[in-house]
């Protein structure tokens, strides 16, 4: 049953759903005609006035189903009852997939970013923005250990999160192991690595692991790494912002003459 | 008189002074043995306890002169009476210079960044951090129009502001005109430019003008530009974060094989 085509299709659909919460973020989603919304969710406790009334009217004018829920049920849908303000909307993100589903379809020279403890929402949003703009085929993201895909991330991504190739996984080390089994290089970005990002031009697939700004790449991810890569720095600068590092990775290929 | 060697030496000294304010930022400066501090300034109204007592003791142990001032005089020194918390310290930044003094000393293939309306302190700090780490010989900065060099900028720069090659100018268009007169290229970063940053490899000196995130490069700076440069973007992404753009410029040369 759990392997039936209907089940898999349904699951693949829900993997692509990002639930956006908060009155202003939800209004902005509904005002964007490029975003496909699956359903609007409202708490029964909302008063039908102001922004809530605008939100409902906009959803109805776009033929988006409107569901009402108890406050508790809505908190389960938004996953953030403290900040959802009684409002959430399911947005379809066409490029979101489960990593294990996407793996067989990756191009032979795939370039992936792996997020290993990106807890600052601003940095996470900027990474997504640069990865979407540059040459990155997928962003490996586990919910545990990274910032949640909430309003701060969406804002810092300048709305690019909705079209970013986010590859969802349960455990980053597990996903990296699958990459290695497919003969992909797993590169841990680390200031003390001897080889630089710019010296390394992989022939096959490659995953670049970005660690936490303070802690660096975690031991679990490091265990799966096939090499370390550094970015050269002058003037005694000890590290770059992690979103800057991600952007240099996303554009390193474009900067090389073909 | 104003052109005497003593006057010019004194002026060049004060061009290199960055006044840091706020109790925690000042304490952090004093705790960093790599930073050369010229003087500590305290408001007479401070109570001599807690952080203020620690700050004074630390300055005295480092033989840094301690001056006390009226609240108003201290606000003039800190340039931010609302947030200085009665404490300021003058830090010597060896790579800070007046742009007009630095211009004759620039290398023939100098790479400069020009900041044209970077009002977000986080972005300004990140730009400085990447410029200091990468291949940038100077950062053209006018106080007017950009975020002030305050605690948020220092934090976002990860402390690299103190050693960054900041070139101070009164008016950015005026400084860009001087660059043009020295046959430097003045490149305005703009999403709609036909040439890309990666296609352009200047033989001589070059200034890259970074505009405001919302407004882009200002008309006054645009008038001095000799060309426009874009960064290619996929997936319909319309722009990159300005600090990311700065970082790609700072590393574009390093990414090219020599």
Automatic annotation (TrEMBL), chains A, B:
<dbReference type="GO" id="GO:0008173">
    <property type="term" value="F:RNA methyltransferase activity"/>
</dbReference>
<feature type="domain" description="RNA 2-O ribose methyltransferase substrate binding">
    <location>
        <begin position="19"/>
        <end position="97"/>
    </location>
</feature>
<keyword id="KW-0489">Methyltransferase</keyword>
<dbReference type="GO" id="GO:0032259">
    <property type="term" value="P:methylation"/>
</dbReference>
<dbReference type="GO" id="GO:0003723">
    <property type="term" value="F:RNA binding"/>
</dbReference>
<dbReference type="GO" id="GO:0006396">
    <property type="term" value="P:RNA processing"/>
</dbReference>
<keyword id="KW-0808">Transferase</keyword>
<protein>
    <submittedName>
        <fullName>RNA methyltransferase</fullName>
    </submittedName>
</protein>
<dbReference type="GO" id="GO:0005829">
    <property type="term" value="C:cytosol"/>
</dbReference>
<dbReference type="InterPro" id="IPR029026">
    <property type="entry name" value="tRNA_m1G_MTases_N"/>
</dbReference>
<dbReference type="InterPro" id="IPR029064">
    <property type="entry name" value="Ribosomal_eL30-like_sf"/>
</dbReference>
<dbReference type="InterPro" id="IPR004441">
    <property type="entry name" value="rRNA_MeTrfase_TrmH"/>
</dbReference>
<dbReference type="InterPro" id="IPR029028">
    <property type="entry name" value="Alpha/beta_knot_MTases"/>
</dbReference>
<dbReference type="InterPro" id="IPR013123">
    <property type="entry name" value="SpoU_subst-bd"/>
</dbReference>
<dbReference type="Pfam" id="PF00588">
    <property type="entry name" value="SpoU_methylase"/>
</dbReference>
<dbReference type="InterPro" id="IPR001537">
    <property type="entry name" value="SpoU_MeTrfase"/>
</dbReference>
<dbReference type="Pfam" id="PF08032">
    <property type="entry name" value="SpoU_sub_bind"/>
</dbReference>
């Amino acid at each position: 049953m759990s392997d039936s085509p209907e089940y898999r299709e349904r699951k693949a659909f829900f993997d692509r759903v990002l639930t956006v919460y908060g009155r202003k973020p939800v209004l902005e989603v509904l005002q964007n005609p490029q975003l496909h919304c699956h359903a609007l969710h409202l708490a029964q406790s909302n008063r039908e006035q102001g922004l809530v009334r605008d939100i409902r009217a906009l959803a109805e004018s776009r033929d988006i189903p409107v569901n009402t829920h108890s406050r508790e049920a809505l908190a389960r849908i938004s996953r953030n009852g403290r900040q959802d303000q009684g409002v959430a909307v399911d947005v379809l993100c066409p490029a979101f997939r489960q990593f294990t589903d996407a793996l067989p379809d990756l191009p032979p020279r795939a370039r992936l970013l792996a997020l290993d403890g990106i807890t600052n929402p601003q940095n996470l949003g900027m990474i997504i923005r640069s990865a979407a703009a540059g040459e990155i085929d997928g962003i490996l993201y586990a919910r545990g250990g990274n910032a949640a895909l909430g309003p701060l991330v969406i804002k810092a991504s300048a709305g690019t999160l909705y079209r970013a190739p986010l590859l969802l996984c349960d455990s980053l080390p597990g996903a990296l192991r699958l990459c290695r089994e497919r003969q992909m290089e797993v590169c841990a970005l680390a200031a003390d690595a001897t080889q630089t990002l710019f010296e390394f031009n992989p022939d096959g697939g490659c995953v670049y692991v970005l660690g936490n700004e303070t802690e660096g790449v975690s031991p679990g991810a490091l265990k799966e790494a096939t090499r370390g890569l550094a970015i050269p720095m002058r003037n005694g600068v000890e590290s770059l912002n992690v979103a800057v590092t991600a952007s240099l990775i996303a554009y390193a290929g474009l900067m090389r003459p073909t």
